[in-house]
Amino acid sequence: MVSSKKAYRELRRYIVIMLCVSAAIPLAFIGGGIYYEYQKSLSAKTEAQLTTIVLQHKGTIELFLQDIRSAMKLVTAMQPRQEISRQPVLEGVFQALQREYDHAFEDLGVIDTRGRHLAYVGPYDLLQRNYGEALWFKEVLEKQVFISDVFLGFRNVPHFIIAIKQGQGEDAWILRATISAAKFGSVVENVRLGNTGEAFIINKDGRFQTRPRMGGNVMEVMQEASSESLDLSTFDGVRLRRVEHKDREILRTKTWIKEYQWMLIVQQDVDDAFAELYTTRTRAIVVFVLGALMVAAVAVATTSLLVRKIEKADQEKKLLDEQLIQSQKLASIGELSAGVAHEINNPLAVIGEEAGWLQDLLKRNIKNAGLADQPEFEDSLREIVVQTGRCREITHKLLSFARKMDSVIKDVPINELIDEVVGMRQREAYLNNVTFEKEYDPDLPAVFSDPSLLRQVMLNIINNAVDALPKGGKVTIRTSPTEAGDSVLIAVSDTGIGIPRENITKIFDPFFTTKPQGKGTGLGLSICHGIIQKLGGAISVDSEVGKGTTFSIKLPLEIKKGAI
Amino acid sequence: MNGPRILIVDDEERYRTTLTKRILERQLDATSVGSGQEALAELKRKLYDVVVLDVKMPGLDGIETLKEIKKTTPNVEVILLTGHASVDSAVDGMRLGAFDYLLKPCELEILLEKINGAFGIKMSRDQRMRQAEIRSLIDRKPS
């Protein structure tokens, strides 16, 4: 039993594992696949978003620069040098530009080719200032137009210079404007993407042209500028990279603007960009774990049910095997006893005849003179004849029992069948001081059933009744038809020890026995139960400890066709 | 002699001789033989009314012997003597024309009752046969 328990446990474990694995693998594949696709689409979406922002802002900034440059070009084209060098004229132009460009202009100056101010409008007194040696001045003389990087200057506000050269040679002059960088800077600085998303502009040297959200100031060199992660080589279009900087993974989009002088960067931490993905992933994992737990629970429950069913089926099979062995045993015992009985009958017949012959001879002798001790002879011979008769009855009973072993469905007179079984136990019962009391219904109808099976049942139940009376007692057997008249009732009661309440439910279970080891197989009542069920009847037990037990059998008058 | 002439057939020698002696003691005519073959020979030799035939015998068994008897001397009544296990063959024997069967060992009085019953049947049949013969003789005369 122990080893089979272990086998069932192993079977259970095996099935549970197989079920879980077979459910978890597709679950993992589906979950993983969906996650992968989602990640791909989210990543594409994020990249597209970054690229769009970059392109938009590139457009805005370049348009802004272009716009101002065009306006200033227009001014230089429209105003001759003499006119513009006059302070009031320049002031008029300044006012007009300020109106048009929403006070983007800090100041406006007209400068000759040597770097001296011819006129100046602005909050500072720069008229005396000479730009002759300034880098931007040299460049504008050369290139006609110059737009500087952003710097703080002594005003300490980010601004840049636009200078436009007009005219040739000594008469040439330069219109110089200081433009607040705040105008386009705010456009860039206001870019918000998640928690870490930002946009900023740096120049070729990696100096900030706008204030980055995440630390740093205008004109400061970007920390990354010297590292490889920030590639400052020129290129066209938009570049998107994933770069690592100081434990952070950054998704960075960049593009060159202002003729490769400035770089517009829009970037966001990967963790931040994919935060949505991570929540989804967490959620998916939770769903997966819950699903897996549910699958496991269902697998365990199903398997328990299954294994219990298998265990029960195995037990039933075992019981059937035992029943088969039992009936085979009974059959061979029957065969053996039939053989023995038959063999004994012949010598018994001889003994009977010899005794009879002696009696005949004695009778003959009475007519003559008679013998001494005649009564003794007569008595002795009578006893031989009587005992021979007893032996004959025993062998005949044995033979009839054996002969009826074959399963035949026929009319069975229940009262006679019980008598036959009781007769087999009578002598042993008598030795144990057990008496049988029969309360038969004399008009009990015959039952169309299997007599050998019924005999087996009755023998078992009567044996149990006798066994329950180790110190003697009474076994009462009652038969009666049911009220409906379609069945008969057989009740076997003993005045024995009774069955405790906790055992009464197990009494028909196979292998349940209260008899000492080796005495009972625990199969008797279970087989009875099986047989009675097979015959379409029912068996029940009623017991009271100390008072006795009653087994009741209800048998249909006719068993269903094909039941056996 | 008015009683039945009885032939006892049984392979158990002691049984058949003692049984014969006991029947003779009751003033009845009885002879015994030890096998089916001997019984058939004896029936050819002498007229019998009732044969008591053991079913289980070596050689020609009771049922075979019965068949043979019913073929050659159908007028003889047969009572089968059987161990219980061969009751089925005894029933077969009844179907083959045996008068009755008895379980061994049996009481002599019961056996004699059966023998008398069989003899009565045979007597009345013999009588009817004789009457029929006489009638046929009478009927034949005018023609």
List keywords for this structure.
heterodimer, A: 564 residues, five-stranded antiparallel β-sheet, B: alpha/beta, five-stranded parallel β-sheet
Fold topology:
The complex is a heterodimer of chains A (564) and B (143).
Chain A: H1 2-78, H2 81-84, H3 87-100, E1 105-112, E2 117-121, H4 135-143, E3 145-147, E4 159-166, E5 173-180, H5 182-189, E6 198-203, E7 238-245, E8 248-257, E9 262-269, H6 270-273, H7 275-367, H8 374-403, E10 410-412, H9 414-431, E11 434-439, E12 447-449, H10 451-467, E13 473-481, E14 487-494, H11 501-504, H12 524-534, E15 538-544, E16 548-556
Parallel strand pairs in A: 11-13
Antiparallel strand pairs in A: 1-2, 1-5, 3-4, 4-5, 6-9, 7-8, 8-9, 10-12, 13-14, 14-16, 15-16
Helix pairs in contact in A: 1-7, 7-8, 9-10, 10-12
Chain B: E1 5-9, H1 13-25, E2 29-33, H2 36-45, E3 50-54, H3 62-72, E4 77-82, H4 87-95, E5 100-103, H5 108-140
Parallel strand pairs in B: 1-2, 1-3, 3-4, 4-5
Helix pairs in contact in B: 2-3
